[in-house]
Design a protein that fits this description.
The protein is an alpha+beta fold. The protein has helices at 5-14, 23-30, 44-47, 57-68, 72-84, 87-103, 108-121, 128-147, 149-159, 164-176, 212-222, 230-236, 244-253, 263-268, 270-289, 311-322, 335-340, 346-354, 398-404, 437-442, 458-464, 501-508, and strands spanning 180-182, 194-196, 199-201, 359-373, 379-387, 390-396, 413-423, 426-436, 447-452, 474-484, 487-492, 497-498, 513-518. The chain folds into four domains: 5-130, no CATH class; 154-314, DNA polymerase, domain 1; 332-437, OB fold (Dihydrolipoamide Acetyltransferase, E2P), CATH 2.40.50.140; 445-518, no CATH class. The chain is elongated and about 100 Å long.
Length: 519
């Protein structure tokens, strides 16, 4: 609990390997739980600020000056000799320090003890002026985050525009603080992360495959007013700004949702949109050269009539375009099942490991799998994993990799038994057991109850229901139709069907379905 700027300086210098061991002592002495010790009264004025704990290189130099009569130049040579650990120079400095201290009335044994302490400290001593510079920046950024959290996070995200791992962390922090991050939109987003009414608007230039030049030309075209349709977008955007990949990335990320919510249709129609944009630009150019030419009409766009992506596919495409799951998470549909299975989130598991736990059960979506060979020639796997609380990694060694390789395919939802250990502040996890999450869910899920406003969704629901392929993962399906505000009728479909959280999520996405309840 720092209450002065000097505490922040000390924290910067202490929070590193080596001096970190002194943090409990510093804190205990600061809060009066332990009395400071100074080894010798001459050291108190030098070490009083840090409660008797040697933290800075400048303190080593001051001790040499006060106790052993070093000049400032000699003290700096001592600091450097200690840092480089040159044996001959250290012996020379030891004799100089001890003789200088004894001349000032300090017992030889005590002088040697203090020299050994200084030599040990030199392994990790930090320059106070450097620590103060870092501390000032830390204080300023902490102030900005405390008083202007929305602007601070938006600026931080803009600085790390191309680092999706950092963007994911900032977005998670925004969620923790209750700050809304709006999905990218061609009608609202700019090149960078922008703030309006306490909301962060996702940067178009942060999408994969969409460059700054493309975004600048889209924003320039929008100065004439918000886009009202895909045809309007195509008629006003310079074709130099876009190509097929840009349109596909914008569609996959949801940037066209305000103009057409069917991302699959827009994605499939990328070439149609691009052709319309080029026709419109050519017509406008001809009109400029023709003294009788008028304004070109918005081009007609006929997109392919295809079904929207299922939720899992929608999120996968979004992940490919953005670099993390923004509008939701593939495990959202499994929330009820995860409670039944008593599964921890990654955040909960990490906290448990930091308090002594060594194993736990976690559900995740596999986002990447990398295989490499160890020094002994055995294969190992490094899994990139994600759950609604964050991204994390877990390793498998050769036997586990061979056993679970087919289960741990990118895109798969899995239930994991993890072992873990704490290295510094980092939780290192390894996979002990893995199984498809749908298989685990099948042991607890007996069926679905689907609530409808009317009968219009029945055809779409029927396309999403399939007969069971085995005993596991099958169940009853009931439909609940609301006739009016006070009357509902429930009827059970004949036979059994495949039931899983993923199927429930696909049905929930059908227009006209109010709710899907897992039984």
């Amino acid at each position: 609990r720092p209450d002065r700027f000097e505490d922040i300086i000390a924290l910067v210098a202490l929070y590193r390997p080596g001096p970190m061991a002194n943090i409990p002592t510093y804190c205990a002495r600061k809060h009066g739980d332990e009395e400071p010790e100074y080894l010798h009264p001459m050291l108190e004025p030098i070490l009083k600020e840090t409660f008797g704990v040697i933290i800075y290189q400048e303190q080593v130099m001051q001790i040499a000056q006060v106790m052993a009569g070093y000049s400032l130049g000699e003290a700096d040579l001592l600091r450097r000799a200690m840092g480089k650990k040159i044996r001959a120079e250290m012996e020379k400095q030891r004799e100089r320090f001890v003789s200088g201290a004894t001349e000032r009335g300090i017992h030889r044994g005590q002088a040697e003890t203090i020299f050994e302490l200084l030599a040990k400290f030199a392994d990790y001593g930090f320059n106070k002026s450097h620590a103060a510079a870092y501390a000032l920046v830390s204080y300023q950024t902490a102030y900005m985050k405390a008083h202007y959290p929305v602007e601070f996070l938006a600026a931080s995200m803009t600085l790390d525009l191309s680092n999706t791992d950092k963007l994911s962390e900032f977005r998670a922090e925004a969620q923790r603080l209750g700050i809304k991050v709006e999905a990218p939109s061609v009608t609202r987003s700019g090149a960078t992360f922008e703030v309006s009414d306490g909301t962060i608007f996702y940067a178009l230039a942060g999408l994969k495959g969409v460059g700054h030049q493309a975004v600048e030309l889209i924003v320039e075209a929008r100065k004439g007013g918000l886009f009202t349709s895909l045809a309007d977008f195509a008629s006003r955007v310079n074709p130099r700004a876009i190509n097929k990949r840009v349109i596909e990335s914008l569609a996959a990320a949801g940037a066209f949702d305000g103009l057409d919510p069917n991302r699959a249709r827009v994605f499939a129609g990328a070439e149609v949109i691009l052709a319309a944009c080029q026709r419109s630009h050519e017509a406008a150019t001809i009109g400029q050269n023709d003294m009788f030419g008028g304004a070109a009409d918005a081009p007609t766009i006929m997109l392919p009539q295809i079904e929207p992506w299922l939720p899992a596919e929608r999120l996968r495409r979004e992940y490919d375009a953005i670099g993390f799951f923004l509008s939701g998470h593939p495990l959202d549909d499994y929330a009820t099942v995860l409670k039944r299975l008593r599964v921890q989130s990654w955040a909960e598991f990490s906290r448990a490991v930091k308090t002594g736990a060594t194993a736990g059960k976690v559900a995740a979506t596999v986002v990447s799998r990398m295989e490499r060979r160890t020094k002994t020639g055995n294969k190992m796997g490094i899994m990139g994993l994600s759950d609604p609380t964050g991204h994390f990694e877990a390793v498998l060694f050769s036997e586990g990799l061979a056993q679970y390789r087919d289960v741990l395919e990118p895109g798969a939802a899995v239930l994991l038994q993890l072992g873990a250990e704490l290295q510094g502040e980092e939780v290192r996890a390894r996979v002990l057991h893995a199984e498809p999450l749908d298989d685990a869910a099948a042991k607890t899920q007996k069926g679905l109850r689907i609530f409808l406003r009317d009968t219009k969704p029945l055809e779409s629901i029927a396309r999403r229901l399939s007969p069971p392929t085995g005993q596991s993962g099958s169940g009853d399906v009931a439909l609940v139709l609301r006739l009016d505000m006070q009357t509902e009728v429930e009827f059970k479909l004949e036979g059994r069907f495949q039931v899983s959280p993923q199927i429930a999520g696909a049905i929930k996405a059908v227009a006209g379905v109010e709710m899907v309840e897992t039984l």
